[in-house]
């Protein structure tokens, strides 16, 4: 990854207390309470399990940006990036002063604290909050809509994470960061709100291409009014979806977190210093679409007792154990592979793989056992 202009600041000042994938309310509450008095910390309400949901408001500019993270509890990378952003805005610099003079930011760092604790997509009632924007059957959904109505943002940043399966187009390069301007109708019409979102995304993509060329993708824009982004876009607010994806060999997503920080900074600075008119829409559609083309591991040239050669596609399950996320391999596809690429390829014709001999177990158990043993050595 090449170097961003904020890299020196970032590597010295990112929020080092937040690491890896398991980020809960307990991890962030003390950080929230230690923020300077210029941050207006407010409890908006409580979750299903009565955990507090907070917002932070900072700045006094006329351009209002609402952003929220961990709507899905197991999507924590953007939460880490938010606290990196808060660290930056806590310090006095020309950039931070410019942002706060021109913008007012309202940030919900963790919308779904129950799902975050359980490391699940859904909330404690097993409801996907990103499919509850119309019904608003859950307290977390009510809170988000209430702050939206009260704050009346000019822009919304909907912060998420995506699985390792995604490629930046039909390409071996993973989608490290993906963006979307949600649709407002079934026809996916290119409305003024979407055009403004596209302009912001194009500027972020231009910056990221210098750091991670060909690793940025465009998320599917199928319309679903039950999704929060589609709803807010339909209500007249240009909305940008951020998806934090897989940087090679970075399952903790620390490198992705850094890139998300740069992307958010790019977007905020651009909004703060420009009148966004909705240009550059053609460049938005030049960003390749997300495609589901990656395995975590591809085992090539495995052999049966009959010397038949075949390949196995392997994915990781993210399992919460003792307060940490463990990546446990499982066989997704065997022989007839459904995906085209893999983040790691192990060829059993090579010496390191030939040292493991299948004997007494069924094939799937044997391969899984091999992966567990290999995993200890650095997968």
From TrEMBL:
<keyword id="KW-0862">Zinc</keyword>
<keyword id="KW-0645">Protease</keyword>
<dbReference type="GO" id="GO:0004181">
    <property type="term" value="F:metallocarboxypeptidase activity"/>
</dbReference>
<feature type="domain" description="Peptidase M14">
    <location>
        <begin position="14"/>
        <end position="271"/>
    </location>
</feature>
<dbReference type="GO" id="GO:0006508">
    <property type="term" value="P:proteolysis"/>
</dbReference>
<keyword id="KW-0378">Hydrolase</keyword>
<dbReference type="GO" id="GO:0005615">
    <property type="term" value="C:extracellular space"/>
</dbReference>
<protein>
    <submittedName>
        <fullName>Gamma-D-glutamyl-L-diamino acid endopeptidase 1</fullName>
        <ecNumber>3.4.19.11</ecNumber>
    </submittedName>
</protein>
<keyword id="KW-0482">Metalloprotease</keyword>
<dbReference type="InterPro" id="IPR000834">
    <property type="entry name" value="Peptidase_M14"/>
</dbReference>
<dbReference type="GO" id="GO:0008270">
    <property type="term" value="F:zinc ion binding"/>
</dbReference>
<comment type="similarity">
    <text>Belongs to the peptidase M14 family.</text>
</comment>
<dbReference type="Pfam" id="PF00246">
    <property type="entry name" value="Peptidase_M14"/>
</dbReference>
